[in-house]
Amino acid sequence: MIHAFADSLALARHLAARLRRPLRPVALSHFPDGESLVRVAHRRGADAVLVRSLHDPNAKLVEVILAADALRHAGARRLTLVAPYLPYMRQDRVFAAGEPVSQRIVGALLGGLFERVLTVEAHLHRVRRLSEVIPGAARSLPAAPALAAWVAAAAPGALLVGPDAESAPWVRAVARRAGVAWVVGEKERLGARRVRLTLPPLPACRRAVVIDDIASSGATLAAAARALRRAGVARIDVAVVHAIFAAGALRRIRAAGVRRIVSCDTIPHPTNAIPTAPLLAAALR
Q1: Which of 35, 65, 96, 117 is least buried, going by the fewest C-beta atoms within 10 A?
Q2: Taking the chain, what is the end-to-end CA distance rounded to the nearest angstrom?
Q3: Which residues of the chain have pLDDT under 50?
Q4: What pLDDT was estimated at residue 190?
C-alpha cells in the first residue's frame, strides 16, 4: 500500500497508478501547542510505502517519524520511504567548530525507521552512495533520464551548460542521453548571493539550457545566464531537479535573460514540468 501526506499526493497518485497499488492519504492534525498527530489506514501484514518530499524539513521530518511508527503499529511488514527531496545531506562534515554532521544524524534516524529509502539526486559531496549515509537499502536515483527526456522533447539540439565542475558528471549524463553538446563553467562564490561564472569557448549555438541540481537563491543560474548572453546565446532556458527557489530567486533568474524555467516534481512548485514517477516506480518494483 502507498501512503502519502497531502503535500505529496500528486506524485503519490502517479506512483500508485503505475504500480497498481492502493493509495491512502495520511491524516494530519495539530494540537494547540503545535504538536503533530498523524493517522494511517493500513492493511495488517502488507508492505507500506510512505511518500513525502522533505523540503521545509523540520516539521515534516517529525511527522514522517510519527507516520513510520503509526504504520508499524498498524501492522506494516516492511517500510519504504520515498522522499524525492532529502534534506540535510550537504552538512557532511564539521565545517566550523561547534557544528554537527547533520547528514549522519538524519541518515541514522531514517535508516532506523525504514527498511528502504529512495530519493532523487541527493546532494552528496564526499560520499559516493546514499547507502553510506543511511543504513540498509538506500538509493539516490539519478535525474538524468528524466531531464534528458525533457531536453530531447522541449529543447532539441540545445547546448547543455553546467555551472561548475561539481555538476559535470550528471550534466554529461543528460547530454549523452539527449544527444547534445555540453560544457561546464568555472564558478567563484563572492558572497551569499554573489557569484562569478566563467564559461569555456562555446560551440556555435543559438540556444542553451542551464542545468543544476538545486535552485535556491538563483544566483548561480543567473550568473550562468549572463555569461551565456555575453557569449551571444540568444535563447536560454533553465532546468533544475529540486525547485527550492527562495524569495526573489525566480525574478533574479528571469532578469538575467532566461526565457523558461522548469523543474522536476521532487518539490511541488509552479515550475514543475519533468515527472519523476517513472524513475521512482521502476525503483520500487
Answers
A1: 96
A2: 13
A3: none
A4: 66
